[in-house]
């Protein structure tokens, strides 16, 4: 059995950033397993720009961003195996892999970083009435068809869901000659970044219809059209139905962290994120197993993925060196309340080693002129005013160590202000 200090599961931006950070921390015996034919993950099909402004201080396309990290991996001499599927991870960090070259094989790792990314929510999870005709795709599948395979899925398109991939594909379909009639969003707000609404919809005259959803799909063999209705309190409003003829329906209805491996090896999962429960070092409930990137929670920007993954890689290196992550054993939970949907990390050590703790979270509604407040035992220990917070944009606050040193019991994080 081959032995490694660190096995990174996934060769996308998170996996590569974790491996690079661990290598720079002095860990030498590292391996990256990637099921695709090359490193880069989903970025290889994201040919639009907007990546790298935080990490590299310049605007890059997805493949360019991935190439930067792939070059670092090669320059640092970090081995990686593509075309390799990870089948199982045991609680003693034995990783079972399968590849064309080596068949089924078990490898032993002193630490593991989970960086498997996420997948799109399919039509079967949406419960839309109608047959299953040809012409229905997730937005990411359509992106791959156009950008990798050079195939345009259709000419007359509608999009359900206003996630970033859906917004970007509205522009991409238009640039390729298709007509995008509209983007429909169930919620009263968009689930994508504001810049994508402006650059991908407004600039091309594509309408975004909020509080609308598809209630019926027409066509048996081939997609013929969809019936759309306005929504109130999650239910269609009778009499508002409108028919849109189309040959292509793209679904951009959310991303799900890819945690089948995590669940199988016994990692505790947060039902609010569908990602692992982690501490301030991004360590899961299994010692020596860390999680980062979209497998942990869905991020807005790949730059944030890389920063988080670097922390996971450094923590894995520390675990291998010491046999345990530092900490006195006292763990304090972060409790989301009053407008905070979830937090990452979910808990932290009373003596966490950094000067500040970054707490990332999403809100449950639109909040204007509000404040983010941390309380411990009913006493306020932190407050930060904000102009606006929306569910589609991840929030990030940095809380100083001396502030959290006041906490010796669970800390509540909440929003003070009324949702709009």
As residue ranges, the low-confidence spans are none
CATH topology grouping of the largest domain: FAD/NAD(P)-binding domain
What structural category characterises the helix and strand content? alpha/beta
Q: Could you name the CATH homologous superfamily of the largest domain?
A: FAD/NAD(P)-binding domain
Rg to the nearest angstrom?
A: 22 Å
| Assembly status | single chain
**Biggest sheet character:** 7 strands, mixed
- In terms of DSSP E residues, the strand content is 35-45%
CATH C-level name of the largest domain: Alpha Beta
How many discrete domains?
3
Count of alpha and pi helical runs: 8
Number of strands: 29
Overall mean pLDDT stands at 94
Measured distance between first and last alpha carbons: 58 Å
CATH architecture of the largest domain, by name, is 3-Layer(bba) Sandwich
Helical residue percent?
Answer: 10-25%
Task: Choose one word for the global shape.
Answer: globular
Notes on the protein architecture:
The protein has helices at 13-24, 62-75, 139-147, 164-175, 194-201, 260-264, 302-322, 401-404; strands spanning 2-9, 30-33, 80-81, 84-89, 94-99, 103-114, 118-120, 129-130, 136-138, 156-160, 179-185, 208-210, 212-218, 225-232, 235-236, 242-245, 248-251, 255-257, 269-270, 275-276, 289-291, 331-336, 340-344, 347-349, 356-363, 367-376, 379-389, 395-400, 411-416. The longest helix is centred in the last third of the chain and has 21 residues, at 302-322. The strands form seven sheets. Strands 1, 2, 3, 4, 5, 6 and 21 form a seven-stranded mixed beta sheet that branches. Strands 8, 13, 14, 15 and 16 form a five-stranded mixed beta sheet that branches. It has three domains: 2-119 and 256-326, FAD/NAD(P)-binding domain, CATH 3.50.50; 122-253, FAD/NAD(P)-binding domain (3-Layer(bba) Sandwich); 336-416, Immunoglobulin-like (Sandwich). A hairpin with a 3-residue loop joins strand 5 and strand 6 (103-114). It is built from eight helices and 29 strands.
């Amino acid at each position: 059995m081959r032995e490694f200090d660190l096995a990174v599961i996934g060769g996308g931006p998170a996996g590569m950033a974790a491996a690079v950070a661990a290598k720079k921390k002095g860990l030498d015996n590292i391996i990256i397993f990637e099921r695709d034919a090359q490193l880069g993950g989903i970025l290889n099909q994201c040919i639009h720009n907007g990546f790298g402004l935080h990490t590299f201080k310049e605007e890059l396309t997805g493949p360019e961003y991935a190439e930067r990290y792939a070059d670092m991996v090669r320059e640092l001499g970090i081995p990686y195996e593509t075309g390799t599927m990870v089948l199982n991870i045991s609680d003693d960090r034995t990783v079972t892999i399968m590849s064309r070259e080596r068949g089924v094989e078990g490898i032993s790792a002193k630490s593991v970083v989970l960086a498997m990314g996420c997948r799109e929510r399919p039509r079967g999870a949406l419960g839309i009435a109608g047959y299953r005709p040809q012409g229905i795709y997730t937005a990411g599948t359509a992106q791959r068809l156009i950008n990798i395979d050079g195939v345009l899925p259709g000419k007359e398109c509608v999009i359900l869901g206003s996630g970033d991939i859906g917004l970007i594909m509205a522009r991409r379909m238009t640039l390729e000659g298709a007509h995008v009639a509209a983007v429909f969003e169930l919620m009263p707000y968009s689930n994508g970044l504001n810049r994508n609404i402006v650059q991908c919809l407004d600039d091309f005259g594509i309408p975004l219809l909020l509080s609308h959803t598809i209630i019926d799909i027409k066509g048996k063999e081939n997609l013929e059209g969809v019936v759309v209705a306005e929504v109130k309190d999650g239910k269609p409003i009778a009499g508002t139905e409108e028919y849109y003829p189309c040959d292509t329906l793209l679904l951009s209805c959310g991303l799900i962290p890819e945690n089948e491996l995590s669940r199988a090896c016994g990692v505790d999962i947060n039902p609010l994120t569908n990602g692992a429960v982690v501490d301030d070092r991004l360590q899961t409930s299994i010692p020596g197993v860390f999680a980062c990137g979209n497998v942990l929670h869905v991020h807005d920007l790949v730059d944030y993925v890389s920063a988080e993954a670097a922390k996971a890689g450094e923590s894995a290196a520390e675990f291998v060196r010491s046999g345990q992550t530092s900490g006195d054993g006292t763990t304090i939970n972060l409790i989301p309340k009053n407008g905070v949907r979830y937090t990452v990390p979910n808990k932290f050590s009373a003596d966490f080693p950094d000067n500040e703790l970054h707490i990332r979270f999403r809100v449950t509604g639109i909040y204007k002129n509000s404040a983010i407040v941390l309380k411990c035992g009913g006493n306020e220990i932190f407050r930060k005013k904000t102009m606006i917070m929306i569910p589609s944009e991840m929030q990030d606050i940095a809380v100083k160590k001396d502030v959290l040193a006041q906490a010796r019991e669970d800390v509540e994080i909440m929003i003070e202000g009324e949702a709009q």
